[in-house]
Structure formats: structure tokens, C-alpha cells
Automatic annotation (TrEMBL):
Molecular-function GO term, any one: carbon monoxide binding
Organism, scientific name: Methanopyrus kandleri (strain AV19 / DSM 6324 / JCM 9639 / NBRC 100938)
Keyword line: Iron, Metal-binding
Pfam families hit by this protein: HypD (PF01924)
Protein name as annotated: Hydrogenase maturation factor
Length: 350
């Protein structure tokens, strides 16, 4: 007889407990994906794990890792007369100079870069698209840039790459990590190859977004640790091919090149961001003087930085749920639907 979903989950949890018992030491597994965090919190997966297995979240929210300098540059562009287009999550993030939602300028919330391009087509003024996102969204920005957009269309690229951040986390040793759960959506684009340098040191398991997917990934990490194995295991075979998506990768490659850049909560991470290639300079916001000030700080009472590095949890923040809520957020982690504070507030019992 076929096992029910509930029975399957119970079986996975039993096997996780057995593996953890055999390991007989504390284990920290980090995931780097807002959608994974949502699955984990919404389904209470942490409460199903053995005491010696910690599942921490890293820099998996693209809005959260965007620096205040990049946001402030877009705010200034709007105040200087450009039409600024940004995703809804980005729109409300507070910075020391206000937010896109409160600034004195023409800021439009868009669902896609194509919509921003359409706005540019219908506008006489210059239009700035603030491009936020990891490898999942960068190919769509690339596709528009490579498709001869209107001359008044500019991109401020805040796109970032996940594997260099994983390498930084591992090298810094700040949070002692035993394994990574790799993001499913990002992996559909990049495949498994880019995790290899991290996977030389510890197990990396690519996972999907159902609760069972996350539990399977935890089990795979524990099994690899027990066997003393490292490497990449793909547990999301229904969506991720080892080679990734060649078309999307080619678009990214043609439009962007990697550059060293700070992330919110992180120092400069080598080759961790995407800048426009020289032949697209006509659409590069940097070329018309929209230059982020990466030294710009943020509200010191917000501990998003530590949360994004796996060193703290949302409820460690004294502002959580009191002075900082989704309707009145202090930091990006409470604004974005992929932010750990928002997810904890919304799905973790408020
Ligand atoms: Fe920052 Fe608010 Fe999260 Fe605290 S609860 S870390 S202030 S976003």
C-alpha cells in the first residue's frame, strides 16, 4: 500500500533522528534561500529536528542583502527627476535617506523588468530599473538589456551571486557550518557546478521547496556527514539539471560580468555581484553618475546583518514584533516576503 504524505514525513523525521544520534555531535546546516525559510517556518520543520541539528538561514533574501547605498542611489535618481521602477519588496525598505515609497519622486512598482522597459517606451524622461535578485532573476534583466531597449532605459544592477557568498561564509568561519542546503530556484539556472569549491569542504545538497524536500535534504546532509563525504548532491532532480539552464546562463554571460561588491551584512565579497558589460554601457546607470555609496550605514538597532550571516534569529532582535513589524519595518528582513523576520512574523506565530 502506498505511504501517505504524513507517513512519509514521519519516516523521514525518524531517519533524521537516527542519523543525528549516530553522529553524536552538534550539526549546523545553513540554507541560503528565502523560499526554503518560508517552508521551514510555515511547516514548523525546525521543531521536528533533533536537538543536535540546527537549521540556520543565510543570505537567501535578495532584497535583504541589497545595500542601503544601492537603495539610496535609486532614491536620489527619483528625486533628481528620473522615473524609478522597482519590485514591491524593494519599494518599502527603509534607509537613512528614506525609502523609495516615501521619497519625493516618480517611483513605480513593477512586477518585471519588461514592465519597466514598457514604461521607458512610453516616457520622455529617463527611466531607471533597480535590478535586485540572484541568478534566478538576472537572466530576465539580461534578456531585456540584450533586446535593444529604448535609449532612455537604464539599469542599476544590484544582482548578486549566491555561490561566492557561500564561499565567504565558509572562509570567514564566523558561523561554524557543517553543510549547506543549496537553493532550488537558483540551481535551476546555474546547475550544480558553481557549488563545487564549497563542496570540496562540506556537503552541499540541492533541495526543492516542499516540506519533504527540505527534510530529504537534511537527511542527505546528515548521511554525508556520517560517511565523511563532501560534494554536491542534487535532491531536486525534478527541476535541477547538473548543467543548469544553458540559455539563461548564456544571457547572463552576455549581459553581465562579475565584480567584487559588499552585501548588506557582509564586507566586499569577491566576484559576487553582476555589473553590465561594456557594450551595454549606454544602459548602465553607473555611466550616468548613479553610483551607490557603499559606506552608507543603516539603523544600528536592526540585526538583519547578523541574521543574514546565520549568527542570530529574528526573535533575537529586541525590535521584533514591537518596534518592527511588516506594516512598520525597521530593516529589510521585515519588509521582503523572503526576509527571515517577515517570514517569522507572518508564519512563525507573530
Ligand atoms: Fe531588523 Fe526588524 Fe528584523 Fe530586527 S526585527 S532584525 S529591526 S528587520
Amino acid at each position: 500500500m502506498k505511504m501517505t504524505r504524513r507517513e512519509f514525513v514521519r519516516k523521514l523525521v525518524r531517519r533524521i533522528h537516527k542519523e543525528a544520534e549516530t553522529l553524536d555531535r552538534d550539526v549546523t546546516i545553513m540554507h541560503v534561500c528565502g523560499s526554503h525559510e518560508r517552508t521551514i517556518v510555515e511547516h514548523g520543520l525546525r521543531s521536528l529536528l533533533p536537538e543536535n541539528v540546527r537549521l540556520v538561514c543565510g543570505p537567501g533574501c535578495p532584497v535583504c542583502v541589497t545595500t542601503t547605498g544601492e537603495l539610496a542611489a535609486a532614491i536620489k535618481a527619483a528625486e533628481d527627476g528620473m522615473v524609478v521602477c522597482a519590485f514591491g519588496d524593494v519599494y518599502r525598505v527603509p534607509t537613512p535617506v528614506g525609502s523609495l515609497s516615501s521619497c519625493d519622486g516618480d517611483v513605480r512598482v513593477v512586477q518585471s523588468v519588461r514592465k519597466a522597459e514598457e514604461i521607458a517606451e512610453s516616457e520622455d524622461r529617463d527611466v531607471l530599473y533597480l535590478a535586485v535578485g540572484f541568478e534566478t532573476t538576472a537572466p530576465t534583466t539580461a534578456a531585456v538589456l540584450l533586446d535593444d531597449p529604448p535609449s532612455n532605459f537604464y539599469v542599476l544592477s544590484a544582482h548578486r551571486l549566491i555561490p561566492p557568498a557561500m564561499e565567504w561564509l565558509l572562509e570567514s568561519g564566523e558561523c561554524r557550518l557543517d553543510a549547506f542546503i543549496c537553493p532550488g530556484h537558483v540551481s535551476t539556472i546555474i546547475g550544480t557546478g558553481p557549488y563545487e569549491s564549497v563542496a570540496r569542504e562540506l556537503p552541499c545538497v540541492v533541495a526543492g521547496f516542499e516540506p519533504e524536500d527540505v527534510l530529504i535534504a537534511v537527511l542527505a546532509c546528515l548521511k554525508m556527514l556520517r560517511r565523511g563525504r563532501v560534494g554536491v548532491t542534487n535532491e531536486y532532480l525534478r527541476a535541477v539539471e547538473d548543467r543548469g539552464n544553458p540559455v539563461a546562463k548564456e544571457l547572463m554571460e552576455r549581459a553581465f560580468e562579475p565584480e567584487d561588491r559588499p552585501w548588506r551584512g557582509f564586507p566586499t565579497i569577491p566576484e559576487s555581484a553582476l555589473k553590465l558589460r561594456e557594450d551595454l554601457a549606454d544602459h548602465d546607470a553607473i555611466e550616468i553618475g548613479i553610483r551607490p555609496d557603499y559606506t552608507l550605514g543603516h539603523d544600528e538597532s536592526c540585526i538583519c546583518d547578523r541574521i543574514l550571516r546565520g549568527l542570530a534569529e529574528p526573535r533575537d532582535c529586541p525590535l521584533f514584533g514591537t518596534k518592527c513589524t511588516p506594516t512598520d519595518p525597521v530593516g529589510p528582513c521585515m519588509v521582503s516576503e523572503e526576509g527571515p523576520c517577515f517570514i517569522e512574523y507572518r508564519f512563525g506565530g507573530g
